[in-house]
Amino acid sequence: MDKKNRKIDLIEKLLKKSEIEVIENEEQALHILLDKTVSENTSQASHEKLSFGQKVSDKVASVAGSWAFIITFILILTAWIVVNSVALLGHVDPYPYILLNLILSCIAALQAPIIMMSQNRQDAKDRIRSENDYKVNLKAEIILEDLHKKIDTMLLNQVEIKKQLAKLQKKENLSEK
Predict the structure, then answer these.
(1) pLDDT by residue (tens digit) across 60-84?
(2) CA distance 143 to 131
(3) 69 contacts: CB under 8 Å, gap ≥ 6
(4) Is the pLDDT of residue 126 over 80?
(5) In percent, how much of the chain has pLDDT > 90?
(6) Based on C-alpha coordinates, what's the Rg of the chain?
(7) pLDDT tier at 111 (50, 70, 90 boundaries)?
């Protein structure tokens, strides 16, 4: 595949089907691409209507991943162990703290899948953001390549014009003598 067809194929990736049908040449494709905004506001996807379960999973993930939760959890575990180790207060859960282990296992069994649901939604948002970044970068690359080509053409034309001016000046100088 030659470079021109490759560029049109890349431009077609960025355009809608209706816009692709009217493309006749590379220059026209570039003008359509310049008029089109390919970037999207990906933060709108995060403000979509969330179900109750999605809201809960996001809240659990944000709370369980905070230092406040970790410190509070450590304090509760320490208090549980101290209260159940001191013989004066009575033993609800004597050493080896079987009830505490059961509670911790239940929390972990419920917390892990809920946090994974939130991470899956975040991963989907990241994929949308990555796709958007790809489109913007591709458009920028195509436009920069085209600008580079046009500047090279202008420089070549400028050199040619200088040569023609030099020839005209020589002819003028010869005709004056």
Answers:
(1) 999 998 999 999 999 999 999 888 8
(2) 18
(3) 63
(4) yes
(5) 41
(6) 34
(7) very high
pLDDT in tens, 24-52: 677 777 777 777 777 777 777 656 688 89
Q: Which two tokens stand for residue 47?
A: 């403000």
Secondary structure, 3-state, the chain: CCHHHHHHHHHHHHCCHHHHCCCCCHHHHHHHHHHCCCCCCCHHHHCCCCCHHHHHHHHHHHHHCCHHHHHHHHHHHHHHHHHHHCHHHCCCCCCCCHHHHHHHHHHHHHHHHHHHHHHHHHHHHHHHHHHHHHHHHHHHHHHHHHHHHHHHHHHHHHHHHHHHHHHHHHHHHHHHC
Q: Distance between CA atoms of 155 and 159, rounded to whole angstroms?
A: 6
The neighbour count for residue 134, using CB atoms within 10 Å, is 13
Distance separating alpha carbons of residues 111 and 63, to the nearest angstrom: 11
Alpha-carbon distance of 45 to 87, in angstroms, equals 56
User: Residues for the chain: how many in total?
Assistant: 177
The answer to whether the CB of 114 falls within 8 A of the CB of 56 is yes
